[in-house]
Design a protein that fits this description.
The complex is a heterodimer. By secondary structure, chain A is an alpha/beta fold. Chain A has 13 helices and 7 strands. In chain A, strands 1-7-6-2-5-3-4 form a 7-stranded mixed β-sheet, sandwiched between helices. Chain B is globular and about 70 Å long. The chains are: A alpha/beta, B alpha/beta.
């Protein structure tokens, strides 16, 4: 036990005093790891505060946010440079830290571009990882919807992400005609789109309600939605303040592609969005159980919600699946 | 950018921890998902030229009053009464609003050739102000002109020669006020309206009154019928004061009321994080919070108190109005509402609040346990219009160290009240019946009030009565982080942490209660529908 509790602190000290010399060495490594994590990803108030989901962020400067013009990032020389970067730097790095296991790739066969990839979101690693996992015909002709208030609030950030990941600014708190029109136009031009409809990374490891933007774009453009579930990236690079070891760590990741979905006749965007959310939840269920169990649950509407149980925060954290065991755990036995 | 209005935040998993005052310190508490946090409006833009605004108000009075210059003639007896040290909170940075107004009034009086001028601090039963406090409130220019000549007085509610009985209202209430004020040709009252409760007829009928007069509305029955003190149309305290004020006017006392409102710019830049919404804290705010809270944790309470009491608020004037009392106060109240009103939908099962180091009755002193109760249950609980923020039978959770510490100079009768009265009963009605008269007439307390810097002997009773409405309304009161024995002495429940408090509260309001947090500073007025 660690932290402010005097019991834990004293117990730790006693164990350290009585333990072997090797324990002390491992303990100091553990402490160093903790210190490094605190320095690289401090929590509020030492770190930046999170923003309540119910509030709009203030509009960024003119020329930034949804006003930022990303057309330059889709010109051929830039696309070529990005493709080289993606194939030779981003993909190897993604394999190095996440080593993704792909499931449901068959759902992408015969799939005609463009499509809208809709995925859950718990880490900054999600975007480069998902792009890395897409077949080539999608990979280099896909744009990524990114929060205008987060990725486009500084010129350098806007330029960096537009270049490396082909991001386009999306207003996540409310419907913005400009950003919605840009996304729809790009899909109409043949660009596939990656969108994370939760509006941001999970603050606690559990999913958040889907917003209607992806479903709206699908209805507007007539292109299908491909549900994607990404599992495990919260262990690679969790959001600041989320449970788990902060900072970048190697961990196993699974990316599951689902069957394409299109709005039914007369189905409005809200209901379609709910169906897409359920499809991603079914993929999550498939990941934790098996395909058949997940199918049967989905058929009876018994798919577990990705939002997790409505219980006290510690119990929600408790109910999260444990992180995959590190390949070489140098912290055993525990020093304190 | 114009100031943003107040609002109610729905806490979700992305909401950062919420700031709670905790006496001479702060805490960051993570509220349960689904809780609500009531945030005050941002400080209004101040008057660009306050002196011109004051001069304009004096020459363009409201109601049926003549302009002040027309009321000032050579040979008249002019008394200028002013609010005491209990306002504003914290004391405002120089120049104080009273200084600005009174200098303008005295300029006009000097121009009109008025020689007989007396200034009176309207203390009611509060302690007398020190020279430093008077200098701060009035400025050196006024103090040096009037104090050495004995023309700067402090109202003495126990001096029979300095009081005059003007009659009784149709409800049998004695109206006894300061003789000099009552017998002047013109009484100018200079007010600071920090909250909607201040001002109006309450200025003279309370500020310049005696115990004989005050006891008619400072009692448990009146307090319980005031819902709330901040809503004068539903406050029996105000209704009584209004009856008295009208009798004072009918007795021939000519009152020229000057009321000012301040914005809620309450703390200087070093404590800027106190007034900002947590998710908007920048690096400087976070560094300020961490530095201040860590330093205060290691600072002895006495030193921390001294540091905080040296804080001067950057309050600025947002309005000034003058003339006939009721017309002026209607306009003043509208300006207070413009700054402080926040619409809140529905009541809550649990109301949480962090209590600061200061209340109106411990400026430059200790917030003793009785004042803690008064601040939470009397003031913050009553910061509503319409319905209380917390439902009947609900729970109030306050965060404050609540140490058994008293200032023997300022609060001598509080010590005896805590040791002799609260050990017997905490019921306001029983306390009033059994103990009030003996404390109110105790010659030692009267002596300390008149010659020292002590609050009147009856003052702790009034503080407890101030809680009467909340005590009747609530199912339980919990103090987080308070001294357990002290908290229990007052009939409340102690809790070490907010989580413990919520666990205790669930015994009263059930397992899935709604929770609302009143985020102060700055102060606000919840308009609960």
């Amino acid at each position: 036990m660690t932290g402010p509790s005097p019991t834990g602190s004293w117990a730790g000290r006693l164990r350290s005093a009585a333990g072997a010399a090797t324990d002390a060495g491992l303990g100091s490594r553990r402490r160093r790891a903790r210190l490094r994590a605190r320095l690289t990803s401090p929590r509020f108030p030492l770190g930046a505060p999170t923003w309540p989901g119910s509030l709009d962020r203030p509009a960024p400067d003119r020329g930034l946010g949804t006003d930022y013009d990303t057309a330059w990032s889709r010109r051929y020389p830039v696309r070529l440079a990005r493709a080289v970067l993606l194939d030779n730097v981003t993909r190897p790095l993604a394999r190095l830290v996440a080593d993704p296991v792909l499931r449901g790739e068959e759902n992408l066969v015969d799939l005609e571009a463009p499509v809208i990839f809709v995925a859950n979101h718990s880490s900054h690693v999600d975007t480069p990882l998902l792009l890395s996992c897409l077949p080539v015909r999608f990979r280099h002709h896909t744009v990524v919807a990114a929060a205008a208030d987060y990725f486009f609030d500084r010129k350098w950030k806007a330029a960096l992400w537009s270049f490396t990941l082909a991001t386009i600014p999306i207003e996540r708190a409310r419907v913005n005609r400009r950003s919605a029109a840009l996304a729809a136009d790009l899909v109409a031009d043949g660009w596939s789109l990656v969108i994370f409809p939760e509006g941001g990374r999970s603050p606690d490891g559990w999913g958040q309600p889907f917003r209607g933007g992806a479903a709206y774009l699908a209805e507007r453009t007539g292109r299908p939605v491909v549900p994607v579930h990404i599992d495990g990236t919260r262990h690679v690079l969790p959001k600041s303040g989320a449970p788990g070891r902060s900072g970048l760590h190697r961990s196993q990741v699974t990316v599951t592609f689902g069957s394409r979905l299109s709005p039914d006749e007369g189905e409005d965007a809200r209901r379609f969005s709910t169906r897409v959310e359920m499809a991603v939840a079914a993929l999550a269920d498939e990941r934790s159980t098996d395909w058949w169990t997940a199918k049967r649950r989905a058929a009876t509407g018994a798919t577990p919600s990705m939002a997790g149980p409505e219980v006290a925060p510690w119990r929600r954290a408790w109910a999260l699946p444990a992180a995959p065991r590190p390949a070489h755990d140098d912290e055993w036995p525990l020093a304190d | 950018m114009s100031p943003r209005p107040g609002f109610v935040l729905d806490v979700d998993r992305s909401t950062p921890p919420t700031l709670f005052w905790h006496g001479e310190g702060f805490r960051l508490e993570r509220l349960p998902v689904g809780s609500r946090v009531v945030y005050a409006p941002e400080p209004l833009d101040p008057l660009a030229d306050p002196r011109s605004a004051i001069r304009h108000a004096l020459t363009h009075p409201l109601g049926d009053s003549e302009p002040l210059p027309a009321l000032l003639r050579p040979g008249i007896r002019l008394t200028i009464a002013f609010d005491d040290v209990s306002l504003p909170l914290p004391p405002m940075a120089r120049p104080d609003a009273r200084q600005l107004v009174m200098e303008e009034v005295l300029d006009l009086a000097a121009a009109a050739g008025v020689d007989d001028v007396v200034l009176i601090a309207a203390l009611a039963l509060h302690r007398r102000m020190t020279e430093a406090e008077l200098r701060h409130a009035l400025g050196d220019r006024i103090y040096d002109a009037f104090a050495p000549a004995g023309l700067l007085l402090q109202h003495d509610a126990e001096d029979p020669d300095a009081l005059v009985h003007l009659g009784t209202t149709d409800h049998g209430e004695d109206v006894e006020i300061n003789r000099r004020a009552a017998e002047s040709d013109l009484l100018v009252y200079v007010n600071i309206n920090l909250v909607a409760m201040d001002g109006g007829h309450k200025s003279v009928a309370t500020g310049l009154a005696s115990y004989r007069s005050l006891r008619h509305h400072h009692n448990p029955a009146t307090m319980r019928a005031s819902r709330s003190f901040m809503d004068q149309h539903h406050s029996e305290l105000h209704t009584s004061n209004w009856r008295m004020g009208r009798l004072i006017a009918a007795s021939g006392v000519k009152v020229f009321q000057i009321e000012t409102t301040l914005n809620t710019d309450t703390f200087p830049d070093a404590f800027g994080f106190l007034q900002k919404r947590e998710w908007e804290w920048n690096v400087r705010d976070r560094a300020g919070f961490v530095a201040a809270s860590k330093a205060l944790e290691r600072t002895p309470p006495r030193l921390a108190r001294r540091i905080f009491h040296s804080v001067r608020a950057p309050h600025r004037l947002t309005s000034v109005q003058a003339g006939e009392v009721e017309a002026v106060h209607a306009e003043t109240t509208a300006n207070v509402h413009r700054q402080q009103l926040v619409a809140v939908e529905g009541q809550t099962d649990i109301l949480t609040m962090g209590l600061p180091y200061i209340s109106p009755y411990n400026v430059n002193s200790i917030l003793n346990p009785i004042l803690v109760a008064c601040l939470g249950l009397g003031y913050f609980f009553n910061l509503y219009r319409g319905r209380p923020l917390v439902r009947e039978g609900g729970v109030l959770i306050m965060s404050h160290p609540t140490r058994p510490e008293f200032d023997p100079v300022h609060h001598p009768s509080y010590i005896d009240f805590f040791e002799e009265v609260l050990t017997e009963t905490t019921d306001p009605v029983a306390i009033a019946e059994r103990f009030e008269t003996s404390f109110a007439t105790d010659p030692w307390y009267v002596h300390l009030y008149r010659t020292g810097y002590a609050y009147h002997g009856v003052h702790p009773f009034y503080m407890w009565y101030w809680c009467a409405h909340a005590l009747e309304h609530l199912g339980a009161v919990i103090i987080v982080g308070g001294d357990p024995a002290t908290v229990r002495r007052m009939g409340f429940r102690p809790a070490s942490t907010l989580a413990d408090a919520l666990e205790i509260a669930s015994d009263v309001v059930g397992p899935s209660p709604s929770l609302t947090h009143l985020h102060t500073p700055p102060i606000m007025l919840a308009d609960v529908t």
